[in-house]
Write a structure and sequence with these properties.
The structure holds two protein chains of two kinds.
Chain A: H1 2-31, H2 38-53, H3 72-80, H4 105-129, H5 131-139, H6 141-147, H7 154-172, H8 180-195, H9 201-217, H10 220-240, H11 249-266, H12 268-273, H13 279-284, H14 301-318, H15 320-335, H16 345-372, H17 383-415, H18 424-441, H19 465-474, H20 481-508, H21 515-527, H22 530-541, H23 547-555, H24 560-570, H25 572-601, H26 604-612, H27 617-646, H28 649-653, H29 664-669, H30 682-706, H31 708-715
Helix pairs in contact in A: 1-4, 1-5, 2-3, 4-5, 4-7, 5-16, 7-8, 8-10, 9-10, 9-15, 14-15, 14-16, 15-16, 17-30, 19-30, 20-25, 20-27, 21-25, 23-24, 24-25, 25-27, 27-30, 30-31
Chain B: H1 6-35, H2 56-63, H3 71-102, H4 108-120, H5 124-136, H6 143-167, H7 171-179, H8 184-213, H9 230-242, H10 249-278
The chains are: A mainly alpha, B mainly alpha.
């Protein structure tokens, strides 16, 4: 009875998810404006439709409009417009052209609908495996957008999912060798390749998983033979479904693939977009809701990505193929020179599986907390002790309130107004107090907030500035300061930890000569005041007169220095490295010291035992040193994380750089620099500050939760 | 564990030397500037060593580094501001730290949370409100304003650290003092405080260093040359350079070195203690 009920619930949820997915995709297909590339793919479909109509089957051997993409999806497009009367072939425009707004509606609609249906089927299949993942995919706005337009994404997305599922089925089955499921998986992989090359990343993930599996079982030799057969089959299927290649396979295939490096190097739209190397990560935290107003219900994407980050570890133990798929795909996108947002669709399926695990993780945590609520002890306060504490508390609280809390509260007050340089006179003559007190008591009307406004009287705007500023820091002019701040924090902490730990381990080996001397030298960056350190690095990288540029002048055009300097002038990717170097420089000594102290607390016997068991150096580190050391490093990591999040002097010293490549702190200090067009908005700066405080609050909660030592301090 | 082989020793030394190069590269850049007597403004050619070795920049800087202000005035301002800020942060925060360390009272947990939160806020978070408040009080451009500003930056951190210091002293010692007739105040002054003094001094030292080396935000609170601190004068040299100023870059280098040396010495001596304090006392538990 109970089992039947849960089956029913399962089916119902799948139906519901599919319905949601279908509704959102059809709505998007009908309402999305025409985007870049849609005319190109529609034209390619028209070419094929003409061939089908005239039964010119040999034409498929010669025709492939936009030959950089294989023909399968274009063939499907042709099929979906077959029922419409033939219309004149669309003009061929350069890839840099603006979207063609005047595409014939009667052709756009059927193709978009077919794509949307295929997208819905993908969601349904994902929901069959995991309804929560299905729901995440159903509401993922980027996925909705690109599977509902005349793009190539819908079909390879579905086919690659099939390839993965069939492989997983084969993994479960007992029959070794090239069994039925493996054959199917190879076929689907071949079809994926015949739809869009990038999606073949699932094939790489499958091979890696296969190899890892075989290694665990000790059957590498047999597996490699099967895998080669599997790969050959996939390639054969690819050729079978790409008739354009039949006449001269090598030339046409190489033309088709070599198109890409050439395209990314020369196409004007790629250069104009000027996306940095890490743009794909940004896309995962972005939602196209701002591009198409009223098409999507809510920008779910960043939340799905955050959930996915939390769920990765669980997903790895449950089914690592998806994590490999996500990781290898991301690595490929980071390396791939063009950064169009539609490429991330190849990751949305594994991403939503990870997001589902993230949801389960939170559910389990909440359940655990709920169950444990009864066993928690409530602290009872002793009245006498409270009275004894009072004389100590009062003077300290007054000082703390005046020096620390009052500025923060004042800051909050300013964030409720539109105080800026234009209203500075009024503000200093009581305008701030007038507007805040009047506004809070309701005597003054709440004005709408505007980041650009410059009024010479301070007005009360209530909380209206918050959503404006939040959307400003999370997305403006195609970039997000908030995203950069978080990316910055993670990368710099990783680098600092890596180098710090490596150095600590090197120094910790027995009998290392000059150990004390090296350690003293390595402490220097930590001891040098931050701003001076920053200036030392500016002295190297400053445009025109930094060491780098002077060296470029001296050693000529072809020297490493000149090439580096030129690349630096081109775009933001390299600037990130130029900023990360000093960040690593500042931070690694702290991590090195923390790790050294931690390493000393590990008893030597542990390592003797590992040596007796014949553990290799790597195994000793992975299974002995690291697990023992990590808990001791957590507080240091969090301190460095907070420091990196707040990093200010470094960006201030480099001051000349575009402020989007800087932390929130820098933007608070430079409301006129960072908000150039808006200029001197004190209220905006105050609002960013309050948002920063809230974000740091989350950090501190993590500090309390993850650092056992910190807990000991807090609850002692 | 056995001693490492020769080959491994060699590889280790080479890796450490590479890291050492990474550490020294930017520092050496500054040293080169400081000792180059040939610089008229910014450096114009690539050099690993100074063109003309000279100690002039140090002499000039030790005499009059910024506009018409003497080095002694700057140093005096720096020491006065930093020491007062540290003292204020310590003295005003002490009783609160003790209360949180010794007593249980309602809302204690939320208080600790607020304390930790304010301790990790960036100094910039306090900048805008302090600028406006101190302007309203008409003391924005005095040394007092600088002291208040730096004390604000440092106080939450000092409170948090002093609390850890008080907590590390066993309660039993105080209880023994109670038996001998001491009250809360006398037991604090005569028993707990002397024992916690070394840790408090370290917290004060960190607060001092914070104020001593801060020189960007401080400029918001300066209008006349006689309230500039040593650290700020470095920033002034940088700023005049950005706007095409005429001071040789060797001044910048030598002043940076003069300023860093005492801090570096303090860090080398107290490295372990400073590390523990900066990790909010979490290694010592």
């Amino acid at each position: 009875m109970k089992k039947n009920f849960s089956t029913l619930l399962y089916l119902l949820s799948i139906l519901l998810v599919t319905a949601v997915a279908f509704g959102l995709r059809i709505h998007a297909a009908n309402n999305l404006s025409i985007d870049y590339d849609e005319d190109d793919y529609l034209r390619a479909g028209q070419v094929y439709a003409h061939l089908i109509r005239t039964s010119d089957w040999s034409g498929f051997l010669e025709e492939n409009d936009r030959p950089e993409h294989p023909p399968l999806v274009k063939f499907i497009i042709a099929l979906s417009i077959l029922s419409e009367p033939e219309s004149p072939l669309l003009p061929e425009l350069p890839t840099s052209a603006e979207p063609n707004k005047y595409l014939p509606r009667n052709l756009v609609r059927p193709v978009r609908t077919v794509n949307a249906i295929i997208g819905t089927i993908t969601v349904a299949i994902v929901a069959l495996i995991n309804p929560v993942a299905g729901l995440s995919l159903a509401i993922h706005t980027f996925n909705i957008k690109y599977v509902s337009q005349i793009m190539l994404e819908a079909i390879p997305s579905l086919l690659s999912l099939f390839a993965a599922i069939c492989y997983l089925k084969a993994k479960q089955s007992k029959r070794s060798g090239l069994n039925r499921w493996l054959i199917l998986s190879a076929i689907f992989l071949g079809l994926t390749a015949a739809s869009k090359y990038l999606y073949c990343v699932v094939g790489i993930a499958i091979l890696v998983d296969w190899f890892m599996n075989a290694k665990e079982k000790g059957t590498v030799k047999i597996s490699i033979r099967t895998a080669v057969l599997w790969g050959v089959l996939a390639i054969a299927i690819f050729f079978l479904f790409d008739p354009f290649l039949w006449r001269s396979p090598i030339t046409r295939l190489s033309e088709s693939i070599l198109y890409w490096p050439n395209y990314s190097a020369t196409a004007t739209e790629v250069e104009n977009a000027g996306f940095p190397m890490w743009q794909p990560i940004f896309w995962l935290f972005f939602s196209p809701t701002v591009w198409h107003k009223g098409v999507f219900p809510f920008p779910f994407d960043p939340f799905i990505t955050i959930l996915a980050l939390f769920g990765l570890k669980r997903l790895w133990t449950k089914e690592r193929l998806y994590v490999l798929w996500l990781g290898i795909g991301m690595a490929l996108l980071l390396a791939w020179p063009t950064k169009w947002p539609q490429y991330t669709i190849m990751l949305t399926v594994p991403l939503t599986f990870a997001a589902a695990e993230g949801v389960f993780l939170f559910r389990d945590n909440i359940l655990e907390w709920w169950r444990a609520r009864k066993t928690r002890v409530k602290t009872h306060y002793n009245k006498i002790e409270t009275r004894r504490a009072l004389p100590w508390l009062v003077p300290g609280l007054i000082a703390f309130a005046v020096l620390t809390l009052f500025p923060l509260i004042f800051q909050f007050g300013v964030s409720l107004t539109n105080f800026n340089t234009a209203s500075i006179r009024d503000g200093f003559n009581g305008g701030i107090w007038r507007s805040v007190s009047g506004g809070v008591t309701g005597q003054l009307p709440t004005m709408p907030a505007d980041i650009n406004a410059r009024v010479d009287k301070v007005n009360f705007v209530g909380l209206n500035l918050y959503p404006k500023v939040f959307s400003f820091i999370s997305y403006s002019d195609g970039w997000s300061v908030l995203f950069f701040n978080i990316l910055w924090t993670i990368l710099s902490v990783l680098l600092q930890c890596g180098l710090g730990l490596a150095v600590a381990l090197l120094l910790w080996q027995r009998g290392v000569r000059l150990g004390k001397l090296w350690q003293a030298l390595f402490i220097l960056p930590w001891a040098i005041p931050e701003m001076i350190g920053a200036m030392m690095w500016v002295n190297i990288f400053q445009t025109d007169w930094g060491w780098l540029y002077l060296a470029a002048d001296k050693f000529g055009e072809n020297s490493f220095f000149a090439i580096f300097a030129n690349a630096l002038d081109k775009g933001p990717s390299l600037w990130l490295i130029v900023f990360l170097l000093p960040a690593m420089w500042y931070g690694f000594p702290f991590m090195m010291l923390a790790a050294s102290i931690g390493l000393k607390t590990i008893p030597k016997e542990v390592f003797d035992a590992a040596a007796i068991d014949g553990a290799s150096i790597w195994q000793t580190f992975r299974y002995v040193t690291w697990p023992l050391l990590l808990p001791l490093l957590v507080p240091a990591i969090i301190v460095r994380g907070i420091f990196s999040f707040n990093q200010f002097y470094l960006f201030q010293a480099y001051g000349f750089v575009d402020s989007t490549l800087a932390t929130l702190s820098y933007n608070v200090f430079n409301p006129s620099g960072g908000f150039g067009r808006y200029g001197g908005q004190f209220a905006v700066s105050a609002t960013i500050n309050i948002i920063t405080v809230i974000l740091l609050m989350v950090f501190v909660m993590l500090f309390n939760r993850w650092s056992k030592a910190g807990e000991g301090v807090t609850y002692a | 564990m056995r001693k490492i082989s020769f080959l491994r020793q060699l590889a280790t030394q080479i890796s450490l030397a590479l890291v050492g190069l990474f550490v020294m590269l930017p520092i050496w850049g500054m040293i080169r500037l400081a000792f180059d007597g040939s610089l008229k403004g910014r450096p114009t050619e690539f050099r690993l060593l100074p063109k003309v070795w000279s100690f002039d920049a140090f002499m000039k800087v030790l005499d009059r580094p910024y506009q018409s202000v003497d080095f002694q005035v700057l140093l005096k301002n720096s020491l006065l501001v930093s020491a007062s800020a540290a003292l204020i942060a310590i003295l005003l925060g002490m009783s609160l730290a003790y209360a949180f360390a010794r007593f249980r009272f309602p809302a204690r947990q939320s208080g600790l949370f607020a304390l930790l939160l304010t301790a990790v806020l960036p100094p910039v978070a306090f900048m805008t409100p302090l600028y406006i408040i101190l302007s309203l009080l008409h003391i924005r451009t005095t040394l007092l304003a600088l002291i208040v500003t730096y004390a604000t930056f440092a106080m939450p951190f000092c409170i948090w650290n002093m609390r850890a210091a008080f907590q590390a002293i066993p309660k039993e010692i105080e209880e023994a003092a109670f038996l001998d007739g001491a009250n809360d105040l006398t037991s604090f002054l005569l028993v707990t405080l002397p024992l916690a003094l070394p840790s408090i001094a370290v917290a004060g030292l960190i607060a001092f260093l914070m104020a001593y080396s801060e020189f960007t935000i401080g400029w918001l609170f300066v209008e006349k040359a006689d309230t500039v601190t040593l650290a700020m004068s470095i920033y002034a040299i940088v700023q005049t350079q950005y706007s095409g100023g005429a001071q040789p870059w060797s001044y910048l280098g030598s002043l940076a070195i003069i300023m860093s040396i005492p801090v570096v010495i303090i860090f080398l001596i107290f490295q372990r203690t400073l590390l523990e304090r900066m990790m909010f006392g979490s290694t010592s538990d």
